[in-house]
Design a protein that fits this description.
The chain has 323 residues and is α/β, with parallel strands linked by helices. It contains ten helices and 15 strands.
Length: 323
């Protein structure tokens, strides 16, 4: 079986190549990739090369297929898995395996398994861990977006709030609270808006920031402010680049209360610092995209939100880093 794939040989060394896949073993499955979305984690892998914790050290001679947010059709099933899978079956993939303590993962570590290709081979550990998932949806792209949406959902559930009576944590975003989604008119931000409008802890208000009028206009087409109001939630898109004083103006939307839950969707120091300033008392901040350099991580987050917790105890910051 020939496949065409984007293979990585080292840092910044990606090559589109056609080559022959080996016959599958009895514990493997051959699949056809229909869709594969591009993850920031793949970009990080490409920039770091062998320094990435999931990258094999022999990739210069045994290149890996990149891409891990994939979905498609099963083509051939090894004998071990014939009772669970069949040719023609739709699948999606949960790529974070952690098989026997190893960090190997499709799209990072395997010579014949990744999403940026026409055909690839799922190794035994993918099925053994239950990570080759049966998919019954109509659109393959929706299955490819399963991983980023799980990150968004995890963020909404990981945020928590306290009270002045005891040490109990109320998990999830604050009910009837103010949510701020910063850098929120891209794919991840709009996923968060969509989930925020349907999350069981119904907020009072969701404010979404961006610095592009074009992206904001597109966001309003995808999820309108009117449709949110039908759910009883105020949704507001704002361009902070044209605000004279973004902190004051964003704070005014909450009548001076501040934002109970802040989600930062761009790895920019100034945006994270602004989010910290906008937190309400007992506010919770969730920082999703991880910068490539440790120095930027320290500057953008650790010297603002976390230190603020220890100094003033006025804010509660949860920094959930998605790699």
């Amino acid at each position: 079986m020939k496949t065409k794939a984007v293979r990585m040989y080292g840092a910044d060394d990606l090559r589109l190549e056609e080559f022959e896949l080996p016959p599958i073993k009895e514990d493997e499955i051959l699949v056809k990739i229909v869709s594969d979305s591009i993850c920031m984690s793949t970009y990080k892998l490409v920039k770091q090369g062998k320094k990435h914790k999931r990258a094999p050290q022999n990739m210069d001679t045994n290149p890996v297929i990149v891409g891990h947010e994939c979905a498609g059709l099963i083509v051939e099933v090894g004998n071990k898995w014939k009772d669970q899978f069949r040719p023609g079956q739709k699948f999606s993939l949960q790529p974070a395996l952690n098989y026997k303590g190893k960090l190997d993962s499709p799209g990072y570590s395997y010579e014949f398994c990744g999403g940026a290709c026409t055909y690839c081979i799922m190794p035994n550990e993918v099925m053994e861990l239950g990570c080759l998932l049966d998919y019954t949806g109509e659109s393959f792209f929706e299955a490819s977006l399963g991983e980023p949406m799980s990150c968004i959902i995890g963020g909404f559930h990981a945020n928590y709030h306290t009270n002045k009576r005891n040490y109990d944590h109320a998990m999830g975003t604050k009910t009837d609270g103010n949510i701020l989604i910063m850098g929120g008119c891209g794919p991840m931000g709009l996923g968060a808006v969509s989930y925020g409008l349907q999350f069981e802890n119904k907020p009072k208000r969701i404010v979404v920031t961006d610095i592009s009028d074009d992206r904001i206009a597109r966001a309003k087409e995808v999820i309108s402010e009117e449709s949110a109001l039908e759910r009883g939630i105020e949704l507001r898109y704002v361009n902070t680049a044209i605000m004279a004083d973004p902190v004051s103006e964003l704070m005014a939307f909450t009548e001076g209360h501040g934002y109970d839950d802040v989600f930062v969707y761009v790895p920019v120091k100034e945006v994270a610092q602004m989010g910290d300033k906008l937190l309400a008392f007992d506010g919770c901040m969730n920082f999703l995209p991880v910068p490539l350099t440790a120095s930027l991580r320290r500057k953008s987050i650790f010297t603002t939100a976390i230190i603020q917790v220890h100094i003033s105890w006025e804010r509660l910051a949860v920094i959930q880093m998605i790699w």
